[in-house]
Amino acid sequence: MKNTIILGIESSCDETSVAVLKNGREILSNVINSQIKIHEIYGGVVPEIASRNHVEVINQVTKQALNEANITWKNIDAIACAYGPGLVGALLVGVSYAKALSFALDRPLIGVNHIEGHIAANYIAHMELEPPFICLVISGGHTHLVYVKDYTKFEILGKTRDDAIGEAFDKVARIVGLGYPGGPKVDKLALDGKAIIKLPKTHFDNLDFSFSGLKTAVLNLYHKEPNINKADLCASFEKVATEVLVENTLKAAKQLNVSQIALAGGVSANSYIRKEFIKLEEEYGIHVYYPEIALCTDNAAMIAAARIL
Asked: DSSP readout, 140-179?
């Protein structure tokens, strides 16, 4: 049987990534050019700057991906690219580049939803994983609870009504003076603290999420008590936010009688969140999956895997 070689392109935010995958699950290369240092001074991603940087590096990143995979253009069977959601200008760079390659090489062009890509990262990391399962997609822009019925059949069971979980982490980091990107910094500082500060938790009748109230409570408390222990505050925020994530995900798994849960997205790299979800295996016999750290953040390997399964 002939191997299928897919070139994946990801440019939805501030990472320019190109990957080469064999048969949808074997990574031959996965090059990621991060713009974190560029946007750090602004405290967040500046869309126009992100788009310009994608234009400057995408050709170089593609050549590097081909070299690391030890292939040439003639070995490529199809081009896959993320078409959204994401920053419009940033996405346009990747989509336009993918269209040009598809036309020049006379190869099929496959559009991939960015969130589907995050889910597919688990297929690369866990060859044994097959639908159906519940996937919690948590990132800077998204908090989605998804029922993965089949490889290309999805049902959104719940989503955030305001801030995404990653956005809340970034804002809490900014409040306590940790800077950008906030998620990893809150995670690190929380390890030195104790979750002893009472913070509000929001629940709805359905499986939706809300983190705006939690974030505002941290802001008000910090302004009221500027000498508060920052590590304790971060640990308390992380605990309450994670409890909501776990409770909704477990509720969804019980309602649908599903025994597999997967995490996806940049926030799934958080050490405390991973630890709390792993407890579900011991307490409820639910298998919990999550990608390796490199596949949690935006990358092209997940895009190449999403539609070739």
From this structure: SS-EEEEEEEETTEEEEEEEBSSS-HHHHHHHHHHHTT--
